[in-house]
Amino acid sequence: MANKGKLLMIFTLFFLLMGIRLAWGFWYQPAVMPFAKQGVLDASSWDFTGNGSIQRVSS
User: Fold this and answer.
1) Structural domain range at position 20
2) Is residue 40 part of a domain?
3) 33: helix, strand or coil
4) How far apart are CA 6 and CA 39, in angstroms?
5) Do residues 53 and 33 lie in contact, with contact meaning Cβ atoms separated by under 8 Å?
6) Does 15 map to a domain?
């Protein structure tokens, strides 16, 4: 009986931690960066105050 309780507690903790980890990934997902097309970067719609600076993304 005690083993079932420990096993249930371990599984509950595991799923709780996995849920927090997944939620963290979705919550702090970076903003979609604008792409350069033919060497020109159109940042006219980019909100520098809210989104910060544009970062280089390697393809």
Assistant:
1) 1-27
2) no
3) coil
4) 59
5) no
6) yes
Global confidence as pTM? 0.49
List the structure tokens of 33.
């960066």
Q: DSSP state, 41? A: E
d(CA 51, CA 53): 7
* Count of C-beta atoms within a 10 Å radius of residue 33: 14
Four-residue CA torsion sign, 38, 44, 47, 52? positive
- pLDDT per residue rounded down to tens, the chain (59 residues): 678 889 999 999 999 999 999 998 888 876 677 777 888 888 887 888 877 787 777 65
Q: In the structure encoding, which two tokens stand for residue 19, read together?
A: 């849920």
Structural domains of the chain, count = 1
57 found inside a domain: no
5 belongs to a structural domain? yes
